[in-house]
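Hi all, a correction to my earlier message: I attached the wrong file for NUDIX domain-containing protein. Here's the right sequence:
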Amino acid sequence: MEYFDIVDEQGNPTGQTVERKQAHRNNILHRTAHVWIVRRRGNSIQILLQKRCMEKDSFPGCYDISSAGHIPAGVDYIPSALRELREELGLTIDPAQLIDCGLHRHHADEVFHGERFLDNQISKVFLLWLDVDEADITVQKEEIDSVKWFDYAECKQDVINGTIPNCIDVAELEMLEPHFVE
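and the right structure:
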């Protein structure tokens, strides 16, 4: 079983833990680490998205954050972000490469595979400048179908318009933008 720290509104652990399934059944606040991978191409910014596999317990078949994951009990944001990059994408980086974009509060109330899914999370949002070819990424097949680079501006518009299947929060995308300036 996977356990999470129950956290307060600032993302601080309360000293209590909860099993993953119970957190999502009972709307219990917990933490995640999100890493958005970006690169420059000419005058534009590109963003790497993963396409979630159809067997995922939430948002199957949707485009999502480059790398993201729940933070196990007793673990902090950066070690969790580094672990998810290794597990999901086969990428090992220096922690100093992660740019802290802040905390983002997210709540979802959805139904997947016939079960209600309540996601009540605080996410530490990181930006990672990394120019890597899709072919050089080793995806975790149990979680991810594929990865794809998108033009950032077009991707943001697609998310707003719902023209690609996604589970991306526009407000979180916008947290990256101040870090695009050189």
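Sorry for the mix-up. The chain has a mean pLDDT of 93.
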